[in-house]
Amino acid sequence: MNRLSKWMAGGLMITDGAWGTELQARGLPPGETPDKWNLTHPEQVESVALAYVQAGSQVILTNTFRANRVAMHDCSEAELDAINRAGVALSRQAAGKALVFASIGPLGKMLLSDEIDAAEASAAFASQAASLADAGADALLVETMSDIEEARLAVEAARRTGLPVIASFAFDSGKGKDRTMMGATPEAVAAAMVEAGADAVGANCGVGVEHVVAICRRLHASCDLPIWIKPNAGLPTIEGAAIRYSTSAEFFASHYAALREAGAAFLGACCGSTPDFIRALVSARRAAK
What we know:
Elements: H1 3-7, E1 13-14, H2 20-25, H3 37-40, H4 42-55, E2 59-60, H5 77-95, E3 99-104, H6 118-134, E4 139-145, H7 148-159, E5 165-169, H8 186-196, E6 200-208, H9 209-222, E7 227-232, E8 236-239, E9 242-245, H10 249-253, H11 256-261, E10 264-267, H12 275-288
């Protein structure tokens, strides 16, 4: 039995919610890179993880989404290593019995337009993955991807650590909002990630919960891997200087049964969500038993 199978033995696992908006609520200025707060405001970062653990999350992520040498090119390798290690340590301090899955986001440069080449991309992902693994993460989450090739490079680099690797894509484009920004379908994503050696595949960010049920079902039908689902708290709207999301925690959690039936193995919430969303999911899971 592999580690993911062992963790999922008790059924669908509840993950965490948004990090960026929670840090902003704690004072992170607009435009500032959240990852740097691992070193400058560690108590605030840990408080986000702890809030989700107290809400019932069985899996929490790390504040390391952008902590690679391409996206954070103004940082030295030593600084990036410290940021990634601190991200894992802070989530681990808050985790208790929860698992810590370390976040690896896109590089922010396009392979298809030659802004970066494959060797550079692989090296950036490998460096971050090594720091996260050495710091004691339970698994690595390659998330919010849109380009299959970039995700493949990230998964292959992450696999070299020996940890379980999840690959998650943002489906927010096309007429049915069922393609990534680069035009990849759930079926294409699932096939490519199986080939790359991912241990699980999924969808995060992008659309709201009501739209992701069909995407979850298509991913599940296209591969035998566990499915990771973490949609946004609805669509964002701008109100003055603030960004608001349209979905309530209750509406979000009302899709719990449909997502479980569609094949979700891990379920949480993304942009705009709060610990209330996780509490609502935990209540929905309890009611469904």
